[in-house]
Amino acid sequence: MELRLRGLGHSYGDREVLRGIDLDVPKGQIVCIVGPSGCGKSTLLRMMGGLERPDRGDVLQVGEVPQGCLNPLTYIFQDFALLPWRSVAGNVSLVLEDHPLAKADAQAMIADVLNRTRLTEFADALPRQLSGGMNQRVDIARALVVNPAVMLMDEPLSSLDSLTRELLMDDLVGLWTRAPFTAVYVTHNLAEAVRLGHRIVVLSRRPGEIREVVELDKSLDARGYGDADLETQQKYLWEVMRAEAVAADAELVSG
Amino acid sequence: MDKPPGKVVFRGGGFAPVTRRWVGFLVFALLLSGIEWGTRTGAISPLTLPRPSDVLQTFAELYSSGLLFQHLLPSLSRLAVGAALGATLGIGVGLFIGLFSFIRAGLVPLVAAIFPIPKIALLPLFVIWFGIDEGSKYALIAFGTFTPTVVATYAAVDNVDRTLIRMGQSFGLSWLSIVRKIVLPGAMPGILAGLRISLAIAIILLVAAEMLGAEYGIGAYILEAGALYDLERLFAGVVILSVLGVLVSAAISAIERRVLNWRT
To answer: Where are the beta strands (DSSP E) in chain B?
Structure first.
């Protein structure tokens, strides 16, 4: 299944936040969306998953939903959005409970994703007992358990410290290499974008329009920390974004 | 010459509640022994305050004569039935106000209008509606617990983390699942905090409810003692109410520890 955006635009009141977005999210690829703060990238992501209604244009779902997929468009949240009163396993089980699954099947699915995210031994822990990085892995496990067709990731690593961020990036690359998933990854961190993106979309400041699309051919598992090729790409992206970021910053100050 | 090195002064203490169990008892003990001493030496005249030891003796007589339970049991059952009715209805209506905009628009002004009415003033009305027996007493207590429970419940529902609800929607959870598994547990801390206040109000109203047509009951006992200016018995009754309040509060704390063990 693929996502296709056609002429997407949106305004809050008389403030236009997004204008004329045309974008394809091809199967099995990670599309990163970067842009200065306030450029509407989170709004864009909410529209892709049906949490917000766009004023103009359409979000199209192309092709069949793969078999065994319980929730085609699945989010991973910046603040994890875990229920604090449920254990790790309970949080994962929450999203299966509305589906007609045999108890043993559900148990097996939960055990499998906890194993893939290396959380098996923390299955009974409560979110508050775990670090931010662990909580984000629970969030990822919960998304994986429904076999999503497209993962919608809203700055998933932004609330983590930089060491944990590196670890989780390795985790995501590992998960993708073993079973390639389709994802839209919103971030303002260029290092994350060049590390995880097959395609990087740069948005302009408000109203957000597509400034540039960069394709990265290097396979994900060949990219590493401090990779020279990636540094070059990152520098290029920064040059594209710099003026936008400065202008966006000044805009916030002036109101 | 250089100043000799001095230690950095610690200034980060305080503003963090620490459990100190015995202080509460100490305050009680000091206050009571102070009054006892005052009444014995004559510094406090017996007309101003009864002697704590006399109150204790009155209480012991009340217990040994079997009258204690004759008064306590009807009161407890009135409290239980009235408060259970009021709290259940209050939580239900509060949830509906929190979940549906139409019901909110319709009922919030009504609740705001009912809240400040002293429920005791409506006692005659309740007697006409529900009879002079237990019915009017249940109604008074239920009505008194209802309004604060409603307000606490819908405020608690409003405070449930919206990102959790969006999460539930993004995973395609049904409306009922979102309410049962996200909204209700998320609102539980606020609902329990509200119950703490509502149940204290229920105890206050218990005395008011027993002003009319009650032969037995803590309230009836206190009012009778008050009419005769029998301060020892009056205080014995008041102490029972205080103890009841402490017990109810402890019960809610126990429930909080069980149900809200996920909080830090």
So the answer is: none
Contact A98 B182 (CB under 8 A): no
Helix spans in A95-197 (H): 103-116, 132-145, 162-178, 190-196
For the cut 60, the answer to whether the pLDDT of residue A253 exceeds it is no
CATH number at residue A219: 3.40.50.300
Q: What is the rounded CA–CA span in Å between residue A1 and residue A4?
A: 10
- Shared-domain flag, residues A199 and A250: yes
Round to whole Å and give the CA distance between B182 and A84.
10
Are A126 and A185 found together in one domain? no
What confidence tens digit (pLDDT) does each residue in B236-256 have? 999 999 999 999 999 999 999
Residues of A whose CB is below 8 A from B264: 128
Last residue of a domain, one of A102, A126, A148: A148
CATH 1.10.530.10 fits B51-259, yes or no: no
Q: What angle do CA A10, A14, A19 make, to 5 degrees?
A: 30
Rg of chain A taking only CA atoms, in angstroms = 18
Rounded to whole angstroms, what are the CA distances from A245 to A34, A164, A169, A206, B203? 11, 26, 24, 10, 62
First to last CA, chain B: 52
Measure the CA–CA gap between A10 and A41, rounded to whole angstroms. 11
Length of chain B: 264
Report the residue from B171, B260, B263 with minimal CB separation from A95.
B171
pTM summary value? 0.83
- Dist. CA B119–CA B143, nearest whole Å: 7
